[in-house]
Amino acid sequence: QLHSDQDKGDGSLKYILSGDGAGDLFIINENTGDIQATKRLDREEKPVYILRAQAINRRTGRPVEPESEFIIKIHDINDNEPMFTKDVYNASIPEMSDVGTFVVQVTATDADDPTYGNSAKVVYSILQGQPYFSVESETGIIKTALLNMDRENREQYQVVIQAKDMGGQMGGLSGTTTVNITLTDVNDNPPRFPQSTYQFRAPESTPPDSPVGRIKANDADVDENAEIEYSITEGDGYDTFGITTDKDTQEGIITVKKALDFENKNLYILKVEATNTHVDPRFLYLGPFKDSATVRIQVEDVDEPPVFSRPAYIMEVKEDVPINSVIGTVTAQDPDAAKNPVKYSVDRHTDMDRVFNINSGNGSIFTSKPLDRETLLWHNITVIAAEINNPKQSSRVPVFVKVLDVNDNAPEFAMFYETFVCENAKAEQLIQTLSAVDKDDSYSGHQFSFSLAPEAASSSNFTLQDNRDNTAGIFTRKTRYNRHEMSTYFLPVVISDNDYPIQSSTETVTIRVCACDHRGKMLSCNAEALIHPTGLSTGALIAILLCIIILLVTVVLFAALRRQRKKEPLIISKEDIRDNIVSYNDEGGGEEDTQAFDIGTLRNPEAIDDNKLRRDIVPETLFMPRRTATARDNTDVRDFINQRLKENDTDPTAPPYDSLATYAYEGNGSVAESLSSLESVTTDGDQDYDYLSDWGPRFKKLADMYGAMDSDKDS
């Protein structure tokens, strides 16, 4: 309550309030000055309120006293329970931990005033999780309370912790939280095989690195603590089998290291050991972290192909052995207990020429064709051995046959020798050095001897000197040679080797006699120059000759076609040209038709004979119709026409319509005058055409035409 000394109780003063919560949380009675709270106050929201109060004259509104400030403090009561910082705690500790091992610390807070009473004093206790864990009441630290807790027995624990204020006394408020505790794994369990003996079967045909079986030792631990390494510690199959670890399944995979053979050994006994790879020294007292088991592997018999006594065979044979000679033997046996018989054959894909054959029963290889070391030194064939009862069971072996050399080839010149000798050569002059080769093989080196053939030794104009180093020289025997007397000499040379049996051959050296200058340089040899083998080959010469022949044939054909085109007439008629001269059915276009022929010549019989124009083309100069002089008489025109007719008969190139020109001119002073129908129309009087009948059969049609006209007029 507020009260002013100026207040006389007559209601003249008025109390007003301002500050924190004035008018909302706190109100004042303006008449009495009583201050009241309108709502429940919470110290945890605001513990202190500062207010200002003043008394004023109700009528004037002026303060009668200075403003007063006062503080309202909220006293705490225990109205808040402790709250943990997390709703759920998660923690983990290794299994087999000692008692008192720290697990986790939980924390709870109380919103009440810690300075006022015990409202904010919190103590911790465990409601669930005993006897495995405990909690410190002051700090909230959770520790292990039981020795040797084993993860393999129980892995998860749920602990409930309570926090209570008022120091844990009666009437205090409390809150709880849950702590999930997980035991982590340690390597405290050794691997253990579920059985002491394992049995597997493996066919003897199992290839190396193939699996035979799987075994597994169980380990209660997890992750790296359960990793196991398998090994074969002893047994009669230590070198035959191996074992590896499957990292995903922790199984031991037994594999074959080398080929199995049922006939040699059909049972193997192994001792396999499983060991942890990560051992914790703290738990060695629990025993050795490994275990062992016995593995028995039974090898099963399968039908195997024959096996050769060697992986490959090398045989040698001389090239002169007769056909059907045995050069060697291959041997193969069935490794199975049944010992099935074997037959042999040669793979013909490796002996396409069938040079060799084999005895199918005993495997002896013999020749079926002659051999030649110089053609082929090595023969590589493949022999097949197959079981008679089961031919699918077969095996192969390579056989390498080396053909040994015998002296069956005579030596010969190393090259073709064609030399020359100068006409002015001197005696004992070297003109050529010879060398020889031999296809045969000589282990001690070839040694050739050279000599002239007996028939040329005494009568030859040349001598031969053996140099004893597989070469020989040809020397002149006389001074000066004459190429006109003898242009070419053929010198037979005998070459022999020193092998057994001795082989020899006779080779011929061609020596040409040539004209030379004073230095011995060849100028010419008879009628032709010396041809060296380095010239054009025969194939090249033939190709050049064929090209020349084809070119000549092309030129001849082209010329013939050109000539044929020139002689071919432009107009080809099925009728003979002479027939056109005597047979015509058209009178023509009359005197005005000057395109088909030149009528100027007929109009002027004395025209120059040499000035002939082609009738099958348009002439360069067209003759315009002009009046010509009258011919001397009809005889001249007839002779002229006959002359033209003869020319046309003898000219094969004249077109057929040239013959019309011979009748284009009727002659000057004709009895019938003009034959033109156009000109006839212009005449004033009638004409008598009876004379046409006297002209013969050629004018019969014309006479009939004009005779009929006269008859019409008379009628």
From TrEMBL:
InterPro entries (UniProt xref): Cadherin, Cadherin-like_dom, Cadherin-like_sf, Cadherin_CS, Cadherin_Y-type_LIR, Catenin-bd_sf
Keyword Membrane in annotation: yes
BP GO annotations: adherens junction organization; calcium-dependent cell-cell adhesion via plasma membrane cell adhesion molecules; cell migration; cell morphogenesis; cell-cell adhesion mediated by cadherin; cell-cell junction assembly; homophilic cell adhesion via plasma membrane adhesion molecules; synaptic membrane adhesion
Recorded topology in the membrane: Single-pass type I membrane protein
Organism of this sequence: Phoenicopterus ruber ruber
Family matches, as Pfam families: CADH_Y-type_LIR, Cadherin
Cellular compartments per GO CC: adherens junction; catenin complex
Localization terms from the record: Cell membrane
Superkingdom, natural source: Eukaryota
Domain Cadherin: 4-84, 85-193, 194-308, 309-413, 413-523
Sequence intervals crossing the membrane: 540-561
Function (record text): Cadherins are calcium-dependent cell adhesion proteins. They preferentially interact with themselves in a homophilic manner in connecting cells; cadherins may thus contribute to the sorting of heterogeneous cell types.
Record carries keyword Zinc: no
Sequence segments annotated as region (Disordered): 184-216
Gene Ontology MF: a single term: cadherin binding
Protein name: Cadherin-6
Keywords, ordered alphabetically: Calcium, Cell adhesion, Cell membrane, Cleavage on pair of basic residues, Glycoprotein, Membrane, Metal-binding, Repeat, Signal, Transmembrane, Transmembrane helix
